[in-house]
Hints:
The structure is a single chain. This protein has one domain: Alpha-Beta Complex (Cathepsin B, Chain A), CATH 3.90.70.10. The protein has eight helices and eight strands; from the N terminus they run ααββααβαβββαβαβα. The chain has helices at 4-13, 17-23, 78-89, 101-109, 127-137, 207-212, 227-233, 285-290; strands at residues 35-41, 44-50, 113-117, 140-144, 163-173, 179-186, 222-226, 236-240. The strands form two sheets. A six-stranded antiparallel β-sheet has the order 3-8-4-5-6-7, with helices on both faces. Strand 5 and strand 6 form a beta hairpin. Helix 1 (4-13) crosses helix 4 (101-109).
Amino acid sequence: MGDCYYLAALATLAEWPHRIEKVFLSKNADQRQIFGIWLYKNGMKTYVLVDNYFPVLKPGYRGSGKPIFAKSHGNELWPAVAEKCYAKYHRGYMIIEGGNTGPTMRELTGAPTYMHNFKAGEEIPGLWDKLLEGEKLQYGMSAGTDGTDEGELDDNGIVPGHAYTLIAAAEVTNKDGNKERLVKLRNPWKKGEWNGRYNDKSNDWTPALKKLLKFVDADDGIFWMPYEEMCTAYSVVDICKIDDKNFFTYQKVSNDNGYAIIKFKYPKNSTEPHLTTFAVSQKDCRAEEADGNSNFTLNNYTRQVDVKFIKVVNDKK
């Protein structure tokens, strides 16, 4: 099933075990064998509960008894639990087929996420600096390719229409003594890797570079590649600005009057700078499909929103 965007979002958060743990209501099922996850859907925090039954292949089929959808490569159940919860929220596995990793990371964390789209060979001004910032501040990052994911690799080892975790970005000195920008990515399939410059068998690697970047030669879906090559092979980079110290709050508003006034408070005695993000969310198209409404277009559910901020000083009311 084509929900690699969702699995890539989970894999991105799993780079930090405490972050993927926060997605789940608890590490273990309760006494009734019920699991659950938190979702920040359409701007609102909610949770989804599922039982411990998962779809598997019928007897007589090749791979009989194995999971049909998400599965781990070890003795873990959490990927299947998270996928089933997401499918249940949208009322079916087929409805979650196809999507984007960036918005999904926001749905799993509540953190603001920014999508950077570009054409092959095009470099977005400032994107490299944003990747370095993400590396420094430990933001969740991902990258996606154009095309249709049919389970096959392109000649360069990259899967079309597929989502990858962007693990790291680094500026290094190559074997010729020149500066080079590299990115590290992971295929959620845990197989299939870039076969161009700086692939696992490339002679671009020097002993010093291997030590600096903690290089591992393994068929594990993890690979390094030049940043410029990434801008050619991929078409989108997502950056989720997760901050473990931040908190999420929301307010549901009505548009009956054509406008809404939202009041909020902020800590007055804070001595450290902090990021405050305001987001306006609408019911998404996937939610409409889950509700059985197939007669809609994106324009029906994408409306212009005018947001204005008024600073109130010494509010004594």
